[in-house]
Amino acid sequence: MIGLGLAGALLLAGAVWAGPAQAQPADACAACHLETGDERLAAPARTFDGDIHKAKGFGCVDCHGGDSRQTGMEAMDPRKGFIGKPSHQQVIQVCGRCHSDAGFMKRYNPSLRVDQVAEFATSVHGRRLRELGDPKVATCASCHPAHGIRPRSDPKSSVHPLHVADTCGGCHADAKYMAGYKIPTDQLEKYKTSIHWAAMTTKGDLSAPTCNGCHGNHGAVPPGVGWVGNVCGQCHTVQADLFKSSVHVKAFTDLGTPGCATCHENHAIHAPGDFMLGLGDKAVCTNCHGPDDKGGKSAVEMRALIDSLRVESDKAGALLQRAERAGMEVSQAEFDLNGARDDLIKARAAVHSFRIDAVKQAVDSGLAVSAKAHGRGIRALGELGFRRKGLAVSLVVIVALIVGLVLKIRQVERRAAVRSRAGEAPHD
Amino acid sequence: MTEHVLEPDENRRGFINWLLGTSAVAFALSVFYPVASYLVPPTVGESTAGTVTLPIKPDDVKPNTGEIFKFGSRPGILIRTAGGDLRAFSAVCTHLNCTVQYRSDLSQIWCACHNGHYDLNGKNVAGPPPRPLDTFVVNVRGTQIVVSKSA
């Protein structure tokens, strides 16, 4: 019935557009589809107005085949290559026909990658589609909605950095849809509690990782246990390099746990802090170590080193701030104290080597800077105290002078009064 | 009882005493007010200093080198590009506030803490820094380099 209705509508639309081929619009498909009154047929034509392909001059037939110069059912003749709505498998071929052709794509965007189809073949989605014919896996149009494809830089795009998580979550956060795949569906919820999501949404840092930053986009797979460090190391290079040469590489490999994610989680990656180190309540080291083993003792020692530098640099900073508020010039000391804060950050990064000597090296350097700054703060406050005492002494002198003057004046007045009374006595 | 009549001298003395007393109060206020003001430390807000004259001469900064300078209590970095331009930026890394430095081998600004890289326009190009360095305006006045915060 639907087919007959569609055919009828298209014929009707064709009658409306009857006339010389050269007088018809370049893409008659949209005109007919908009006239059908059937929202399922009209919506794609309407949505296509905002599609980048339309902006570049492509039309319906470039993906669906057929002949847009014809009206009615003749436009949708399979002999003219009309395929209708591409099947799940066909979508890859339809998109790849242009997007895998480097020579063709150069004409529109010379820097655009042309390996999406090859990448897709390596993805879990691609493998399941190829090997199992799984109709539920994502293909091109699942993430780049057909007829409404926008460039990644467009804030309305489904693959704009701010929307990628929700696009992936459209399937992966849907427990009903994902039933049967035996994978969690809380990734999106967890990711939205992470420091990466916060960096993107509150700080506006669109380079912060979203799903594709760690999983790949067209070749999306879960990072392997052995290469999680490489993935995080794309940005966190210092920590990744230190970790690679640490004792934990072998330990984690033997345990079958992923490098960075063992301590920092995978999707719910929260802001790290000193609390993670050592054997305290929130310390991640306690997942494997106790107070009696070598690792636990090392963790406690590294934590103590870092705490000592944090406390000393904070103390020196507070002292300098007090001096500054009291009007003393300590900007050079405050400037130099930045070095201790740098060392504190380097010491925290050095923890990823899990070597006490590496942490101690940074901490010792920072402690020396802090001690120097603290000494300058003490001297500044000492000078302030000296100035205040000097002021107090001068005040005492001034007050004494005033009191003395007052007393002297009274004495002079008393004498004058006595003399005056003595002079007036004979007249009484 | 004899009625006391004020003599002209007593009127004058009263007036002079009143004048002296008032002057003494004014004098005391003028002494103690600044003293009290001095003893109570003023609240110092964020520095609004927007310009600094560097203790570096233009000729001392060779092409493809950089110098850290003090801008208030925070560091800045002055760079002379290989092409001879002088540029200045905040030397505070936008990731975790470490002090950045110039890497002549890379012709880039680099943060040692987490291996962040910035190009010679201060733009973050690699590593974890989330945004570019703040840019300063550089003016050369004779043998002086004056750096100002952007308007």
Give a structural overview.
The complex is a heterodimer of chains A (428) and B (151). Chain A has helices at residues 2-16, 28-35, 39-47, 52-55, 61-64, 88-99, 102-105, 116-122, 124-132, 140-143, 164-172, 175-178, 187-191, 195-201, 211-215, 228-232, 237-244, 248-255, 259-264, 294-325, 331-350, 356-424. Chain A has 428 residues and is an all-alpha fold. Chain A folds into three domains: 1-83, no CATH class; 86-222, no CATH class; 294-424, Butyryl-CoA Dehydrogenase, subunit A, domain 3. In chain A, α2 (28-35) packs across α3 (39-47) and α20 (294-325) packs parallel to α22. Chain A is elongated, with a radius of gyration of 39 Å. Chain B folds into two domains: 1-43; 51-149, Rieske Iron-sulfur Protein, CATH 2.102.10.10. Chain B has one helix and ten strands, in the order αββββββββββ. A six-stranded antiparallel beta sheet of chain B has the order 1-10-9-4-3-2, with no helix packed on it. The termini of chain B are far apart. The A-B interface holds A 199, 203, 205, 207-208, 235-239, 324-327, 331-332, 334-335, 338-339, 341-342, 345-346, 349, 388, 391, 395, 398, 402, 406, 409 and B 20, 24, 27-28, 31, 35, 38-39, 41-44, 70, 72-75, 96-99, 112-115, 124, 127-128, 130-131.
- Number of beta strands of chain A: 0
Largest sheet of chain A: none
Mean pLDDT of chain A: 89
Number of domains of chain B: 2
N-to-C CA distance of chain A: 142 Å
Order of helices and strands of chain B: HEEEEEEEEEE
CATH topology of the largest domain in chain B: Rieske Iron-sulfur Protein
The radius of gyration over CA of chain A amounts to 39 Å
Query: What summary fits the major beta sheet of chain B?
Result: 6 strands, antiparallel
The biggest chain-chain interface is:
A-B, 32 and 30 residues
Helix content of chain A: 55-70%
Strand content of chain B: 25-35%
What would CATH call the class of the largest domain in chain B?
Mainly Beta
Give the termini separation of chain B. 85 Å
How are the strands of the biggest sheet of chain B laid out side by side? 1-10-9-4-3-2
What sort of overall outline of chain A do the alpha carbons produce when their principal axes are compared? elongated
How much is the radius of gyration of chain B in Å?
31 Å
Whole-number tally of structural domains of chain A: 3
